[in-house]
Amino acid sequence: MSPDTSFTASPDPEDDPVAAADSTGSERGLVILPTYNEVDSIAGIVEGALAQDPRLSVLVVDDASPDGTGALVDSLAAAEPRVNVLHREGKLGLGTAYIAGFRWALERDFEWIFEMDADGSHDARYIPDMIAATGRFDVVVGSRYTAGVNVINWPMSRLLLSYYANKYARIATGLRLADSTSGFKCFTRRVLEAIDLDRVGSTGYTFQIEMNFRAWKKGFRVGEVPIVFTDRRLGQSKMSGAIVREAVWRVWALRLRSLIGRL
Hints:
By secondary structure, the chain is of the alpha/beta class. The protein has helices at about 15-20, 40-50, 70-80, 95-105, 125-135, 155-175, 190-195, 205-215, 240-260, and strands spanning about 30-35, 55-60, 85, 110-115, 140-145, 150, 185-190, 220-225, 230.
């Protein structure tokens, strides 16, 4: 069965498509969605994100998905000016996908820059809460663990790995977040402008910890809003042993570099 490619298109813009999204004020947001083989879910994720606020645009960063994700998003972008696509030559890693998206956002003067999974595990309805929280925080983390454990459909082994990985990260870095590894977050523009993106070295899920840590060390306010996380409805998890091993040593490397002034 072919994927559902239905999409609600907005009226044609009169000028630049990105600028046309700014219909309610000067502040605009970009939701970055890294993809690799997400053809079954991406159309619904994109539409759900755009529905949250007319000031939002989406950038899909596709790592040459062999299932046709990139081609599908190209068709969505042709119908909707707030949808944008960045095609990469291969599977280059989550961290580098977000870095590419950050640079794209900064070049186009977006104020809010979101990270969000493209598999349905992050519910776009929390985006307005995260935008509102930028009045108090410079980095807003959508947290699974601030109000108990709000995770649906994970096996106990995966839940325990995530929960204790966050405790481990808190001990190693000193950053007092309940959910340092969350991949659903919002950066204000000034945070990404202040961080030297060339020095961000994590490629897997440790990328989330590193970005939080670097922002905190720059003196920015890093806070959390509660979300409910639902395990991916479609596709396969990208979690691997290599990602876990990277997390074990890299958090301590970040702490050491901070202590010696080489972060």
